[in-house]
Amino acid sequence: MIQVEELSKVYPGGVEAVKGISFEVGAGEVFGLLGPNGAGKSTTIGMLTTTVTPTSGSARLAGHDVSREPIEARSVSSVVFQEAVVDRSLSGRRNLELHARLWRIQDARIDELAESFGLEGLLEQPVDTYSGGQRRRLELARALISAPRVLFLDEPTVGLDPRIRHELHDLIAGLRVRAGLTLLLTTHYLDEAERLCDRVAIMHRGELVALDTPNALRAALGSEIVELHVEGEGERMLARLREYGVASDAAFAVGSTLTLPLAERGAAAAIAAIQALELPLAQISTRRPSLDDVYLQLTGGRLDEAA
Ligand SMILES: Nc1ncnc2c1ncn2[C@@H]1O[C@H](COP(=O)(O)OP(=O)(O)OP(=O)(O)O)[C@@H](O)[C@H]1O
Ligand SMILES: [Mg+2]
């Protein structure tokens, strides 16, 4: 449903926002694009939705090339942008009606859509009076008016409280049940990617540094991790652990936390080896790998850290 080949974007001024990425998303799949601020996620969505012109490479939606057949490509897809696009002074209903008119949809079934997004009691109120979560639901409803086959969601839950995020997750997960709807969403939230996505691509500085199912990405780190909180600079301590052969190349440091994927090794043996070194450790623990670990290992930074 989505085919991306060697897609690049260099903005005027020379910022290489996207550096030749390739991936495919199958019909009905939920695909996550994960990455920190500035990774190139919105630029990628911009190119896929024809609002950003690619510098090179190609992208096709349901077979339609976004550069050569932009109208066809647009007609099969819909997008919920990172920034709000609904008109806050108008009512929810008016916003949906305007969007339906823009798309020349005669029978927009606004009430039906509003109901499926829990907006039925709010439609006549100005969007100004909506909470953040309600506005997001209105934007989702709006995006579905044109009955897209592919839906792009750019950071659908950013800035929402945990409960509202969970509600939105359920709504988004429900969207895939609609026959054939393919979803590509971007997020900073690893739990969101894990919960919603069949496959996840990790984007870092314009490149895809990993692409697989959340399970497979985690499995690449082995079944267990030793986490050390050290006193002082984590990187220096990691270098020492490497010298002693206790930490592998897969280990990484963020601040004063060291993460040591164990691969084949048993946790007890690893901990004994570390303790034998008598390093200034504040804390040592074991746990199962998470998508966070995968992300941190590949990008060397926290998700909320600017690239
Ligand atoms: N219109 C533009 N002109 C010039 N540079 C831009 C433009 N839009 C984005 N960029 C730059 O391109 C890079 C990628 O930005 P993009 O918005 O695609 O990242 P993102 O992954 O969506 O980040 P965020 O998580 O903050 O939304 C950044 O360095 C950004 O400053
Ligand atoms: Mg963005």
Account of the protein in words:
Strand 1 (2-10) and strand 2 form a beta hairpin. 33% of the residues lie in helices and 26% in strands. The protein is of the alpha/beta class and 307 residues long. The strands form three sheets. It has a six-stranded mixed β-sheet with strand order 6-7-8-3-9-10, sandwiched between helices. The chain has a four-stranded antiparallel β-sheet with strand order 2-1-4-5. It contains eleven helices and 14 strands. It has helices spanning 41-48, 70-75, 92-102, 110-116, 132-144, 162-175, 190-196, 214-219, 234-243, 267-276, 291-299; strands at residues 2-10, 16-25, 30-34, 56-61, 64-65, 77-80, 150-154, 182-187, 199-204, 207-212, 225-230, 252-254, 257-261, 281-287. The chain binds adenosine-5'-triphosphate and magnesium ion (MG).
